[in-house]
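Input record (one chain):
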Amino acid sequence: MHEVRQIIQRLRLGEKDRKVARAQKVGRDTVAKIRRIAAERDWLNATSPMPDDATLAECCKASGKNPQNISTVEPFREEVLAWHTQGIQVSTMRQALVRKHGFTGSAHSLYRFLGREAPTAPAATVILEFAVAEMAQVDFGSGPVITDRQSGEVFKTWIFVMTLAWSRHQYAEIVRDQTVETWIGCHRHAFEWFNGVPKKIRIDNPKCAITRACYYEPTVQRAYGDLALGYGFVIDPCPVADPAKKGRVEAGVKYVKANFVPLREFHSVVQANEALRTWIMSEAGNRIHGTTRERPLKLFAQTEQALLQPLPAIAPECPVWAKAKLHPNCHVQFGLCYYSAPYRLIHQTLWLEVAPSALRIYREHELVAVHPRLFKPGTRSTVEEHMPPEAQAYFMRDPQWCLTQAKALGASCLAVIESLFANRVLDHLRAAQGLLRLRDSFGPVRLEAACARALRFGSPSYRTVKKILKEGLDHQSDWVPSIELEAPYRGAGRFSREPSDLLH
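The corresponding structure, as predicted from the sequence alone:
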């Protein structure tokens, strides 16, 4: 009856039901019932003695209020509190109570009990101080929804924010994704915006920067590591699930989302970024910051910008690295575009080195292919040497090749090939290739003769030429006996009419 006793004591002090319920973490109805019981028995009088547990239990039971409804954990108070001090989880406590005592309460009842009896100390924070030009903090936040005016496409965006920890001056950019390539590009743009590079970049643990989050030794994305080496900054990931370590950019993201995004309409990412940068230079950078009580842009221009590390004379390329499996069609996929690699590597996992201008494909440390970078989805870059021999032969022996080979064999062969390509219904490339391959079996002279015979009989096709050669008909003469028609079948038809009569 410990909880009931505490509630009565608070009621004696004149506290309202709402305040008592909030403090004791019980419902106001429960407080009201206890107040009614206490008032009936004059327990609310501070001069009256406090009833013992047995009396309280009897009165609560008589009133229809089971004291166990206040807390089913109360009979096991000491045991539960001891477990709590040992750091045992609530789910484990409940399982032990069920095994040992037949406990019927829920895990929530344990949480409520511990919240009253063993409240955790409030989390304390420490204000982090940073030297001038020492650090920038980076984060993503949700951006505006943009409706493309031309296509009608509606898409979600993200806001990349880099905040200088000392001056609070910031760079922001609206993007459509959080890929490694976008992440690196936004860093480049931010350094150009500041015209310098801070010594450290504090980040959360996004997949585009950290491939494996770990408190002690996180694994950095290869491309991001190259960027850090190229620009001369150190990557400083926050501990997992501890965003307070980069509170300045967290505040910066909230400020952009609350003050720039609302009540604005954008129809392209370019338009949105132009408006965002204008807003940073005119409003965000010139506001009085709540902590420093200075204008971020003024602090940056007067002090911090000069102390940033200079930009490299030549910007490092910093390609993006990705793994991809070579498909049976001899192509790998990156960014919805396709790039060929040697057919002998089908089903093998390859490394892609993706730069703004080129894409290189590696098998372990061996460079196996180089392609120009493609950006339009669905486009393909194919090197014929990467295809299997049969495919290479097919692509090499195109119509022009077939015509050139036929011309060298003779006029008849050329005429047959031209007739095949003149067909508007069926693609006869394979038929032309097959006809020319007959030279290997029958020789060029016989092939030319067979083509001449096929032309004379009005059947310039692969099948006809092959039949002529197989049956040796190219050696026979082309004489065809004349057939004399009888009189009824000569001249005009018996029932024919003049064409002029049909018009009337």
